[in-house]
């Protein structure tokens, strides 16, 4: 058997070598020695890759569209919140099957300092699991078990920076020149000040500036938190060693590598240091590296930017970069629609997505571990008399429950009093009004909030790409306020929606009389229906429909012989939609056939109508 694959590595390398060499030499001033070292690494990691993973590589290499189907449903979770540690997750593996998910994003689990961890995004060792969560062997055991169950595993690759506790940072602090050259070190503020002229700030309130002065007087670049030191990818050693770290994770059985904060990885004086052309060259090289060593592995780019900056990370057909990207603008526009009940912005967003090549795969989500940043199309909103600052203030007031009549319960994130800017945190259920209804024991309000929650999930499942459920959302988990009492968390409101998974409450998923049960069974039905109908394939044609109601979003999808009309009512009142002529369809959620020229959508209701 093995003999058939004797030249597999050479074949893959040869097919890409010229381009790899060209990009590497361009970026690293013809550093042929560095390139040779890199190729040596590729060979070594291919040799070390275990047979079962190589089998997956071969299967997926033959079927490169494997992730473009309608049968992948994701979930993202924190190992400790979900089950204590990696072995706990292994014990709970049946739950994934029960939820119908076959793609799991395990949130950062590599070694990271207790106090300064940024939720694990300050990595102190890329080859070691956080001891409380287990060991690398446990991770390998988990990914192997997941593969046996048909589940793909995603892990973050925090490539922009390391923790200041990483061995490179420690050595740099001690004056090791080679280690210092992996970061951006300065002995005066002259150059940092030059950078500050053109580089925006990520966390203006909690971490002002892009540089941090160390106790010994050195100044180091820290785009995110002061304890996250930016890596200098202009140094080929950084690229080579970080590529090795990536391959190490791939060989531990990780199927999807999330390229954390990827737009930031290349810095150039006099520029905003975001999305520079060199970033794309690096991502392209990492894509080729994976195609050579581990072609089953996908790259998921975390590009939380305006749409025009996001799409280039897919690369081109000849020179692809990321396999998948987050559908961040749709996520933010969805919540905008919840607050305004006006679907026009979301409709415009659907129009824009419809124009993109349908082989692009987006990762669709309602909530993730981060805040909701209001990255909306303000030029367009302005034409409709909605100015950015007052509009953001309205959204934030609405979602923190301050706006009269709002049932949302969120908290602000990174509020900037001067710029009057803030982002937003909270779980889907709490933002939809479930929390307020539960605490006020208002059954009617609870019913509406649950319907809103389910409708939003239905909309997420209608979008092309991979839907990812935020762990806990499947049972309507509420905000967790306990972080306010934790000194290491209290200044970061993202912990509001990073609560411990409550297994006792989750038991209620089996009881249809509870809201947990209603949401859980509705999500299962949505998943099964999506998987059973090819019209939900990522490559389907789609476009928004005119519904005649400002509150109802309509989407038409077509694939193969199936046509789907989908409607989502974003307001708390019933809405009647009238068609120009009678339509025969099957309601995919009830299985009932209808022949009618009008449909009534319940408050926060939705309809998946399969044309007959
Ligand atoms: C990404 C992560 C976020 C983290 C940041 C810095 O944006 O999603 O949680 O704070 O990177 O690593």
Descriptive overview:
This protein is α/β, with parallel strands linked by helices. The chain has four domains: 2-59; 71-110 and 275-535, TIM Barrel; 167-230, Alpha-Beta Complex (Oligo-1,6-glucosidase, domain 2), CATH 3.90.400.10; 538-611, Golgi alpha-mannosidase II (Immunoglobulin-like, Sandwich). Helices cover 38% and strands 19% of the residues. The strands form six sheets. The chain has an eight-stranded parallel barrel. The radius of gyration is 24 Å and the shape is globular. The relative contact order is 0.09. The model has no long low-confidence stretch (mean pLDDT 96).
CATH architectural grouping of the largest domain = Alpha-Beta Barrel
Q: What would you report as the Rg, rounded to the nearest angstrom? A: 24 Å
What is the makeup of the main sheet? Answer: 8 strands, parallel, barrel
Q: How do the strands of the widest beta sheet line up side by side?
A: 1-2-5-11-12-13-14-17
Number of helices: 22
| Average pLDDT | 96
User: What portion of residues belong to β-strands?
Assistant: 15-25%
């Amino acid at each position: 058997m093995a003999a058939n694959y004797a030249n597999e590595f050479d074949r893959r390398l040869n097919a890409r070598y010229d381009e790899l060499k060209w990009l590497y030499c361009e970026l690293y001033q013809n550093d042929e020695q560095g390139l040779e070292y890199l190729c040596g690494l590729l060979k070594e990691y291919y040799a070390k890759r275990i047979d079962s993973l190589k089998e997956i590589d071969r299967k997926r290499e033959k079927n490169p569209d494997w992730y473009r189907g309608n049968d992948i449903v994701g979930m993202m979770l924190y190992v400790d919140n979900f089950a204590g540690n990696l072995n706990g997750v292994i014990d709970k593996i049946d739950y994934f099957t029960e939820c119908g998910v076959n793609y799991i994003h395990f949130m950062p689990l590599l070694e990271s300092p207790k106090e300064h961890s940024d939720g694990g995004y300050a990595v102190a060792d890329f080859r070691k699991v956080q001891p409380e969560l287990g060991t690398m062997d446990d991770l390998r055991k988990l990914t192997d078990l997941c593969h046996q169950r048909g589940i793909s595993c995603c892990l973050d690759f925090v490539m922009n920076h390391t923790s200041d506790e990483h061995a490179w940072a420690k050595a740099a602090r001690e004056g090791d020149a080679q280690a210092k050259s992996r970061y951006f070190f300065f002995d005066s503020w002259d150059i940092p000040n030059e950078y500050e002229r053109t580089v925006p700030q990520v966390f203006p309130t909690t971490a002002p500036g892009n540089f941090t002065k160390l106790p010994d007087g050195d100044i180091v670049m820290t785009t995110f938190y002061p304890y996250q030191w930016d890596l200098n990818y202009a140094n080929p050693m950084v690229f080579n060693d970080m590529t090795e770290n990536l391959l190490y994770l791939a060989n531990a059985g990780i199927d999807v590598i999330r390229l954390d904060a990827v737009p930031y990885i290349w810095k150039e004086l006099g520029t905003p240091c975001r999305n520079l052309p060199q970033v794309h060259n690096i991502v392209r090289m990492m894509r080729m590296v994976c195609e050579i060593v581990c072609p089953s592995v996908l790259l998921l780019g975390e590009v939380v930017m305006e749409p025009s900056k996001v799409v280039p990370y897919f690369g081109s057909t000849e020179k692809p970069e990321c396999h998948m990207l987050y559908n961040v603008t749709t996520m933010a526009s969805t919540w905008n629609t919840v607050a305004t009940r006006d679907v026009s912005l979301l409709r415009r967003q659907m129009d824009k997505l419809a124009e993109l090549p349908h082989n692009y795969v987006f990762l669709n989500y309602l909530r993730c571990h981060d805040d909701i940043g209001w990255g909306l199309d303000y030029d367009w909103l302005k034409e409709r008399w909605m100015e950015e600052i007052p509009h953001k203030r309205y959204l934030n007031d609405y979602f923190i429950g301050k706006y009269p009549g709002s049932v949302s319960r969120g908290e602000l994130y990174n509020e900037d009093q001067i710029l009057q800017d803030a982002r937003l945190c909270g779980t889907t259920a709490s933002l939809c009004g479930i929390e307020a209804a539960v605490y006020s024991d208002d059954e009617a309000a609870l019913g509406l909030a649950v319907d809103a929650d389910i409708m939003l999930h239905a909309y997420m499942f209608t979008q092309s790409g991979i839907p990812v459920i935020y762990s806990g959302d499947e049972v309507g988990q509420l905000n967790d306020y306990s972080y306010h009492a934790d000194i290491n968390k209290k200044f970061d409101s993202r912990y509001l929606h990073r609560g411990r998974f409550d297994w006792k409450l989750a038991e209620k998923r089996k009881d249809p009389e509870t809201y947990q049960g209603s949401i859980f069974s509705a999500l299962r039905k949505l998943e099964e229906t999506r998987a059973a109908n090819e019209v939900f394939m990522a490559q389907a044609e789609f476009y928004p429909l005119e519904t005649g109601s400002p509150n109802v979003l309509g989407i038409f999808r077509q694939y193969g012989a199936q046509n789907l009309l989908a409607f989502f009512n974003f307001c708390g009142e019933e809405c009647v939609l009238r068609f120009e002529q009678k339509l025969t369809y099957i309601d995919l959620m009830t299985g009932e056939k209808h022949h009618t020229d009008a449909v009534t959508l319940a408050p926060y209701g939705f309809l998946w109508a399969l044309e007959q």
